[in-house]
Amino acid sequence: MVEDNLRRIYKELPPEVKLVAVSKFHPCEDILEAYRAGQRRFGENRPQEFAAKAVQLPEDIEWHFIGHLQTNKLKMVLPYASLVESIDSRHLLDAVEKWGSEHGKVIDVLLELHLGAEETKGGFTEAEIEEILTPVPERRAELVEGVEGAYPHIRFRGLMGMATNTDDEAAVEADFVRIEAFKKHLDDWFALPDFTELSIGMSHDWPLAVRHGATIVRIGTAIFGPRIYR
């Protein structure tokens, strides 16, 4: 089943868009089935489950952490994550920088833009992201120096967003239009060389996300079926 589902998705997915197979709540056997079918990127959102799977499964897996990350769980995630997609607060950003400094590692991250109507969703506002990328906005000529000076152990790779949880396609598309436009604004204004990724779209809306500039889609149920809660 997993192999067939992957094959079906890859037939529709543009080759330049990265597929993260969201394996949270699914056993290692399911991940290995996807791995044997050629899938190499997987996403998890619970630190303890993430760490346990990372040490059991093949070393060439590219792990993405996609959930809310508490600062006291960094040691479970940062040694294994190729990309932390869900940096949603200054507090977390500062803690990741501190961990990177202590361990001599540069961490690749996405900044999560608060999208959708739900107040419970995390993430930054547009203004907060602009402030992070340039601590002194008027010093545009010194932008890259400013970023490196503030966070020398973090590499900002792009944006992540989660659309409104609704069946209203127009509302979801409005969220994607917003983050797509903001990503283009950041590209035009800051021109950061590594800031290339836009992670939007899940099992139910990824084709719409691709139409609005997604470079990463996070697909779980459409690959693995319903989650197995434990």
Annotate the secondary structure layout:
Layout: H1 2-12, E1 18-22, H2 28-36, E2 41-44, H3 47-56, E3 62-65, H4 74-77, E4 81-87, H5 90-103, E5 107-112, H6 126-133, H7 143-150, E6 154-160, H8 169-190, E7 197-199, H9 206-211, E8 216-219, H10 221-224
Parallel strand pairs: 1-2, 1-8, 2-3, 3-4, 4-5, 5-6, 6-7
Summed up:
By secondary structure, this protein is of the alpha/beta class. It has ten helices and eight strands. The radius of gyration is 17 Å and the shape is globular.
Distance between the ends: 21 Å
Structural class: alpha/beta
Approximately how much helix is present in the residues? Answer: 40-55%
Total number of distinct structural domains = 1
Strand line-up in the sheet with most strands? 7-6-5-4-3-2-1-8
Q: Got a strand count?
A: 8
For the biggest sheet, the summary is: 8 strands, parallel
Percent strand equals 15-25%
- Count up the helices: 10
Q: What is the fourth-level CATH superfamily?
A: Alanine racemase
Task: Identify the CATH class.
Answer: Alpha Beta
Gross geometry = globular
The CATH topology, please? TIM Barrel
CATH architecture: Alpha-Beta Barrel
Explain what the structure shows:
Strand 1, helix 2 and strand 2 form a beta-alpha-beta unit. The protein is 42% helix and 17% strand. The chain has one domain: TIM Barrel (Alpha-Beta Barrel). The chain has 230 residues and is an alpha/beta fold. The chain has ten helices and eight strands. Strands 7-6-5-4-3-2-1-8 form an eight-stranded parallel β-sheet.
